[in-house]
Amino acid sequence: MANKIDRVPVREQDPKVRATNFEEVCYGYNAEEAQLEASRCLNCKKPRCVDSCPVGIKIPAFIHQVLEGDFKASYDTISEDSSLPAICGRVCPQETQCEGSCILGVKGQSVSIGKLERFVADYAREHESAESKHPLIDKQGIKVAVIGSGPAGLACASDLAKLGYSVTIFESLHKAGGVLTYGIPEFRLPKKAVVEKEIQKLLDLGIKIETDVFVGRTVTIDDLMDKEGFNAVFVGTGAGLPLFLGIPGENLNGVFSANEYLTRNNLMQAFSKESDTPIFQAKKVCVVGGGNVAMDAARTALRLGAEVTIVYRRSEKELPARAEEIHHAKEEGINFQLLTNPVEVLGDENGWVKGIRCIRMELGEPDESGRRSPVPIPDSEFDIEADALIVALGTKINRLIADTTPGLGTDRKGRLLTEQTATTRKGVFAGGDVVTGAATVILAMGEGRKAAAAIDEYLKGYGAS
Ligand SMILES: Cc1cc2nc3c(=O)[nH]c(=O)nc-3n(C[C@H](O)[C@H](O)[C@H](O)COP(=O)(O)OP(=O)(O)OC[C@H]3O[C@@H](n4cnc5c(N)ncnc54)[C@H](O)[C@@H]3O)c2cc1C
Ligand code: SF4
């Protein structure tokens, strides 16, 4: 199925200019461009795009409302299924979800669903009126604690507050937002203009946020329930513990986990000379990994003035990052060493990184993930000159909450065990990366919303109606 109009291109910052600043890469559509792009949608009777959206956004309906110029109605349609459209429009892996299934993509280019979602959400934010605020119902002070302020916690808190519960979010860092704040860089997801505004909407609903509270250390779930009177708890603490390579030299100065590197830049503005926690300004940086985290770390290092090489053990086809991030990274001049794996970090006499010894790989038989396993090619070692190494191999779950909460079951990877978001501990619910392992914003948000519905059902026993 072809379409007479080509996909409307989206305006972006010039790659040479943006490689030197932290401003947002993509400018998004204006109203005219959005309506032209919306006119490409066939408004399918059986829309494959909706089936592939993890939260089932009514895509043809919201696109049709864009076409008609009724952007407010379009926002309301999206909001029925998504609480963070300005964020999801920017960071969802659309090419493997809605856009990957769009009928127009079979013989041509799919509808640019993500950019349309972003346009609608940005338009609504810029034209916000007091009447769009949600009316509050009072559930007579029935209290719910939400632990973690990432997309899972934010979505759960927002739905519960709209249902009238008294909600307090406890966050261990000094700023709310989870990965949206500390992980994904400004050039992909602006903090002041987008993330902070989304969080402000929650505060406007009456939700309280207590930062610098590390549940499991500062206070336990038992304390919250038994001493502080919370009737239910939602755990959305993510999967933030970095994995390392386990190779010689990994303790040298100049080796970072991507988490630390990104957190120090995004949250503590380490790139600025005025920052209390400046970061080592490397000249040649190697980043190991091929996901969104690797792309974000590499593009951050580039903006800090380094020449950057991404080392990934499989081929380009298997790179797990969003297609747009890989495209942008290449445009900005990041080098890719594919089918390559580090075997040793090389150090100088003062204990600083001076290079990475790597080995070439080839693809063998498929592993349990269905992807072909990388196998080292004997005697193919070579060195890459580098003064910093950023390890972006993925993350695992911190066991602190499970270890300090009697009755909370986990699997062997530390993921909380749940059934319809209820954990094995009565009154405690969970969702997002802490249940699934590292996944996506939209899945975390969707699980947060499911948990809010389950908590509402559970609290009916406490007189909530
Ligand atoms: C750098 C990076 C880039 C990414 N890019 C994308 C992308 O482009 N698209 C996409 O869909 N997904 C992306 N992801 C994945 C996505 O961000 C996560 O899947 C999502 O944020 C998970 O949401 P969550 O709410 O479960 O957890 P998180 O966002 O991790 O939030 C958990 C929060 O809980 C807090 N917390 C943890 N323990 C405690 C405790 N004991 N007490 C109190 N608070 C606690 C943490 O500080 C954190 O703020 C990326 C991830 C990273 C790290
Ligand atoms: S599959 Fe594509 S063309 Fe059909 S409704 Fe969805 S976005 Fe429109």
Topology, element by element:
Layout: E1 11-12, H1 15-18, E2 26-28, H2 31-38, H3 48-51, H4 59-67, H5 71-79, H6 85-91, H7 98-101, H8 113-126, E3 143-147, H9 151-162, E4 166-170, H10 179-182, H11 191-204, E5 208-210, H12 221-227, E6 232-235, E7 241-242, E8 255-257, H13 258-266, E9 284-288, H14 292-303, E10 307-311, H15 323-331, E11 335-337, E12 340-347, E13 353-366, E14 372-376, E15 382-385, E16 388-391, E17 395-396, H16 400-404, E18 418-419, E19 422-423, E20 428-430, H17 433-436, H18 441-459
Parallel strand pairs: 3-4, 3-6, 4-5, 6-20, 8-16, 9-10, 9-16, 10-11
Antiparallel strand pairs: 1-2, 7-17, 12-13, 13-14, 13-15, 18-19
Provide a compact summary of the structure.
This protein has helices at 15-18, 31-38, 48-51, 59-67, 71-79, 85-91, 98-101, 113-126, 151-162, 179-182, 191-204, 221-227, 258-266, 292-303, 323-331, 400-404, 433-436, 441-459, and strands at 11-12, 26-28, 143-147, 166-170, 208-210, 232-235, 241-242, 255-257, 284-288, 307-311, 335-337, 340-347, 353-366, 372-376, 382-385, 388-391, 395-396, 418-419, 422-423, 428-430. The chain is α/β, with parallel strands linked by helices.
Index terms:
alpha/beta; 18% strand; 465 residues; Fumarate Reductase Iron-sulfur Protein, Chain B, domain 2; 5-stranded parallel beta sheet; FAD/NAD(P)-binding domain; 3 domains; binds flavin-adenine dinucleotide; 18 helices; binds iron/sulfur cluster
Structure, described:
The radius of gyration is 23 Å and the shape is globular. It has about 475 residues and is α/β, with parallel strands linked by helices. About 45% of the residues are buried. The chain has helices spanning about 15-20, 30-40, 50, 60-65, 70-80, 85-90, 100, 115-125, 150-160, 180, 190-205, 220-225, 260-265, 290-305, 325-330, 400-405, 435, 440-460; strands spanning about 10, 25-30, 145, 165-170, 210, 230-235, 240, 255, 285-290, 305-310, 335, 340-345, 355-365, 370-375, 380-385, 390, 395, 420, 420-425, 430. The longest helix has 19 residues, at about 440-460. It is built from 18 helices and 20 strands. The model has no long low-confidence stretch (mean pLDDT about 95). The chain folds into three domains: about 10-130, Fumarate Reductase Iron-sulfur Protein, Chain B, domain 2; about 135-240 and about 395-460, FAD/NAD(P)-binding domain; about 240-395, FAD/NAD(P)-binding domain. The structure holds flavin-adenine dinucleotide and iron/sulfur cluster (SF4). Iron/sulfur cluster binds near residues 49, 59, 60 and 102. Flavin-adenine dinucleotide binds near residues 183 and 442.
